[in-house]
Design brief:
Elements (H helix, E strand, L loop, with lengths): L1 H9 L6 H11 L2 E4 L2 E5 L5 E4 L2 H13 L8 H10 L2 E2 L3 H11 L1 H5 L38 H16 L7 H13 L10 H6 L7 H4 L3 H4 L3 H13 L1 H16 L1
Parallel strand pairs: 3-4
Antiparallel strand pairs: 1-2, 2-3
Bound molecules: zinc ion (ZN).
Amino acid sequence: MDVIIVYLRDGIPPEGRIEAKTLRAKSTRSRLINDKLYKRKFSVPLLRCIDHEDAYYVLREIHEGICGDHVEGKSLAYKVLRQGYYWPTVFDDAAYYVRRCDRCQRFADTPRALFQELTTLTSPWSFLGIKKSFATIYRPQANCQVEAVNKVIKQTIKKKLDALKERWANELPEALWSYITTVKSSIGETPFSLLYGCEAMAPVEVGISSFRMEVFDDEANQDLCRLRLDIVKELRAKSQLRLALYQQ
Ligand SMILES: [Zn+2]
């Protein structure tokens, strides 16, 4: 990383023709802003490149910090990228971090089904004599969705609590916050972005500033937020379509 910074700042390539050529190729997608290195990516325009020490801080803060929700490795890595940070081994490091997290291991979901060989099920007879009846449910469209969300929040709170179980109510706002700022595979977005049209500012961005913090301009930000609100409806429609496909 330092070599690229020196090259971008002073224009000094490393010695050796091949090394210089490799560095030139590598640095085409990098930018130096206020002496901080950024990488151009596809999901976010510029991701801040951070070193090993900062990477550990970012992982810890997002995984188990104030608004951390102890998500699994891949989701954690995506969350890091979405918050605007990058380093080459982000996916491996995130997986390793989760494997070493005591609470994740202690409170992880364990399969309760008995181990047995998979067998093929056949249904040679139609289901005769069975009467179909419907249960009375308040909102059929949301059938089981509330329970599914509650389960995730319960798991998050469980991982955040120590011996003081009665503190669960204090942990609830943080668990809810981390839930709405995590990308859901069923909708492809964070619930927060579906509501407000943009991603929330995470506590980790206060510790290590991301690109949007570095170039923050209040007026431009307000304009952009209003613009993003214009496309929220399209974003929700897209998520709804994705959810329908996901449920099939
Ligand atoms: Zn954890």
